[in-house]
Amino acid sequence: MIVEVKHLTKKFPVGKAYFTALKDLNLSFAEAEFTGLVGPSGSGKTTLLNIIGSLDVPSEGEVIVLGKSVGRLSPPEAALLRKQELGFIFQNYNLLPVYTVFENVEFPLLLLDMPARERKKRVLESLSWLGLSDKVNSRPAQLSGGECQRVAIARAMVKRPRLVLADEPTANLDSVNSHNILQAMLKLNQELKTSFIFATHDEKVIGYLKRIIQLEDGRVAEDRLV
Amino acid sequence: MIRFLLKGILRDRSRSLLPIIVVSLGVMITVFLQAYMDGVLGDSIEWTAQFTTGHVKVMTRAYQENMSQTPNDYALTDVDILQPQLEKDYPGLSWAPRIQFGGLLDVPDENGLTRAQGNVKGMGLELLNSSEEIERMHLNDYLSSGDFPKQAGEVLLSRELFNQMGLTLGDEVTLISSGMWGDMAMYNFKVCGTLQFGINSLDRGFMIADIEDLRLALNMENSASEILGFLKEGYYINKEAQNLSGSFNQKQTKTQDKFSLLMLPLSDMNGMQFFVAYAQQMQYLIVLVFVMAMSLVLWNAGLLGGLRRYGEFGLRLAIGENKHELYRSLMGEAVMIGLLGSIIGVAFGLLFSWLMQKYGLDIGDMLKDSTIMMPTVMRARITSTTYYIGFLPGILSTLIGAMLSGIGIYKRQTASLFKELEN
Ligand SMILES: Nc1ncnc2c1ncn2[C@@H]1O[C@H](COP(=O)(O)OP(=O)(O)OP(=O)(O)O)[C@@H](O)[C@H]1O
Ligand SMILES: [Mg+2]
Questions:
Q1: Contact B319 A94 (CB under 8 A)
Q2: Which of B234, B316, B323, B361 has its CA 20 to 30 A from that of B367?
Q3: Whole-number pLDDT of residue B376
Q4: A82 at B interface, C-beta within 8 A
Q5: How far does chain A reach from its first CA to its final CA, in angstroms?
Q6: Taking each helix axis from N to C terminus, what angle separates A101-111 and A145-157, rounded to the nearest 10 degrees?
Q7: Number of domains in chain A
Q8: Which element (helix H / strand E) includes B229?
Q9: Can you point out the beta strands (E) in B18-93?
Q10: pLDDT value of residue B122
């Protein structure tokens, strides 16, 4: 198991009271999964993804990511976990506009203090996985939305993380581009054994998933393999 | 990583342009003001040094006690031994013996009767053997007619006195004064040129002649009122002058003796102490003011820039930096911007200071009726301080600005910084 969620409850303070976004969740995720968290808006998908990604902490219960209990990590330890093991993909790509495609993808490797030659090899490899070899020196503003999201995927994959967390990755894409990037991710999932966890309500994404976890009102309503 | 940040700064104009302009401008003004203050205050100090005090002055204790009355009965004797000794002990300095005196100037008519009379103050300098004193006091700038003494018995008079007494060049005048031994002294000079200082107190009645003439005139053979020392740097350095004087005075025995020697630094004479301290404090004040003003501006610029960058910060947190690293990299950016801006600012500041040093600003007309001893051309002065002083406000202010504006990173939850990504 690479992720274990045990009796996870998440409460947000709202004024003087609390809003409970996740209620006593129990889930586990294995290696090389291609899983989606689906459910209506406000059901807690992003909240769960953030906690698995060690960007937020549980209020109750425990989330263990690659053997580490997220709630007990110090901020630097959590950052180290993200740096070494996790990749993130966002709805609006979040590329750094002043840097080239190459530099955007290189950034996670800079944080890992990887030597320059190794970095270059990895970045070019990662870009070729996603069919971006001819965009190396472009700036994000010069790319289409689909290309931007492919750069973001290349950036998430370049350090070959064990787990990639993708929050609504297709929300801003048309259907051709959505299928494109999903096929690319599926290929990486199979070749590199990377686990993907999506948060989505996009039917196109759901069509690719191998496991679907239905969240409703902060609880697991259904958890099925496809 | 540093290269990565530098690329970001250089490419993202909105992040770097305003701060760099602010820093450059502030640094430039700091540098210029420093050089200007140093120049103007320093020039006033130099003026006093060249005319009256030297950077240090050697005299007898008794002379010092009534220095303003130039009591030549307590003058230095055996100057032919004393001066070489000083030159040997303090090889860095140049030494200039001078006679200061006051008296009455009398213009006789063809029958030897008084045609005109006036009070004078005057100075005897080495004029005939070398031009060092002429250059030191910039007398060339003040010469308004005639020439400097070329032979014994020639004298320069201040222009106003010269006109008042109805003289023409080549006329004879008689100095009536008291000699070193309390005797009455009379001596004839031939007027060879006139000086105009633009300073009332001097122009009203002043004369300059070769020191040997005055030794003869005042019975001061081998004597001098005082010996002025000038630092090799060419301008007054308070610490150095203080140290020199301190060590010189320590070596003097018999300090009860009226004729024992005393060396004073410029700051201990003519009420210059305040002025010297003021000139020094001024620099710190300028730096302080600019650090504060620029920090405020950069703080705000940082806040605005930071708001735009929360998306980037969230992403970087997600990719694996922690808040400390993020904060530190903001400081790193600030230092780079500070350095960049400072280099530009120092370059321009030096350029303007250099122009101001070379060409100066003539305020002679404004000072026409002033009695303050002050140079009439304001000039900047570039010293070693001018080169580095700009970096203090440049880097400090960007750092302080970034530190204050970056605190926002800590105030926000990681997840909510991260939320900026979703909108
Ligand atoms: N920081 C917060 N403070 C208060 N309430 C929050 C906070 N973050 C999330 N919530 C609430 O928790 C619930 C779950 O939010 P979450 O973002 O996980 O939903 P979601 O399933 O991702 O929805 P969507 O499909 O619209 O993205 C929502 O009702 C939201 O208002
Ligand atoms: Mg969401």
A1: no
A2: B234
A3: 67
A4: yes
A5: 19
A6: 20
A7: 1
A8: strand B226-230
A9: 56-60
A10: 94
Q: Phi/psi zone of residue A17: left (φ > 0), alpha (ψ -120 to 50 degrees), beta? A: beta
Domain that holds residue A64: 3-225
Give the Å distances, CA to CA, from A32 to A1, A36, A215, B40.
10, 13, 21, 77
Nearest CA in chain B to A102: B4
Beta strands in chain A (DSSP E): 3-14, 17-29, 34-38, 60-65, 68-69, 86-89, 163-167, 195-199, 211-216, 219-225
Cβ density class A191-222: b for 16+ within 10 Å, e for less: eeebbbbbbbbbeebeebbeebbbbeebebee
The strand ranges marked E within B275-360 are none
Q: What are phi and psi of B269, to 5 degrees?
A: -125, 155
Per-residue pLDDT of B362-412, as tens digits, reads: 776 766 655 555 666 778 888 888 999 899 999 999 999 888 888 888 877
pLDDT tens for A15-74 read: 899 999 999 999 999 999 999 999 999 999 999 999 999 999 999 999 999 999 999 999
Joined together, the tokens standing for residue B372 give 């303050």
Segment holding B191, helix H or strand E: strand B184-195
Which CATH number goes with the domain that contains A104?
3.40.50.300
Protein residues with CB under 6 Å of any ligand 1 atom: A 12, 14, 19, 21, 41-47, 199
Is the CB of A104 inside 8 Å of chain B's CB atoms?
Answer: no
Please list, in sequence order, all residues whose beta carbon lies within 8 angstroms of the beta carbon of residue B91, skipping any fewer than 6 positions away: none
Which atom of ligand 1 is found nearest the CA of B415? 1
pLDDT reading at B308 higher than 70: yes
Mutation test of ligand 1: which of A43, A92, A170, A216 has the most ligand atoms closer than 8 Å to its C-beta? A43
Residues of chain B found within 8 Å of residue A98, distances taken between Cβ atoms: 7-8, 11-12
Residues 6 or more apart whose Cβ sits within 8 Å of residue B10: B16
Residue A46 burial (CB count, 10 A): 22
Beta strands in B317-383 (DSSP E): 361-362, 377-378
Residues 6 or more apart whose CB falls under 8 angstroms from that of B404 comprise B295, B299, B302
| Each residue's pLDDT tens digit, B137-179 | 889 888 999 999 999 999 999 999 999 999 999 999 999 999 8
Q: Let me know: does B27 contact B346? Beta carbons within 8 Å.
A: yes
Matching residue, tokens 């008042």: B164
Task: Give the pLDDT of residue B416.
Answer: 67
Helices (H), B49-78: 61-65
| C-alpha count within 13 angstroms, C-beta hemisphere, residue B224 | 24
- What residues are paired with A211 via a beta bridge? A35, A225
Q: Which two tokens stand for residue B45?
A: 């100090």
Residue whose entry in the numeric block shows the structure tokens 């120049």: B39
* CA–centroid distance, residue A46 to ligand 2 (Å): 4
**CA-closest residue to ligand 1 atom 11:** A21
Give the tokens for residue A55.
């960007």
Report the Cα A67 to chain-centroid distance in Å: 18
Phi, psi of A163 (to 5 degrees): -140, 130
B256 by DSSP, 3-state: which?
coil
At A159, list the tokens.
């350090």
Alpha helices in chain A (DSSP H): 45-52, 75-85, 101-111, 116-129, 145-157, 175-192, 203-208
CB B66 within 8 A of CB B226: no
Q: Calculate the CA dihedral of residues B246, B249, B250, B254 and round it to 10 degrees.
A: -160
**Contact predicate B126/B97, CB 8 Å:** yes
Average pLDDT over residues A191-206: 95
Q: For residue B421, what pLDDT band results from cuts at 50, 70 and 90?
A: low
Return the closest-CA partner of residue B327 out of B313, B341, B345, B312.
Answer: B313
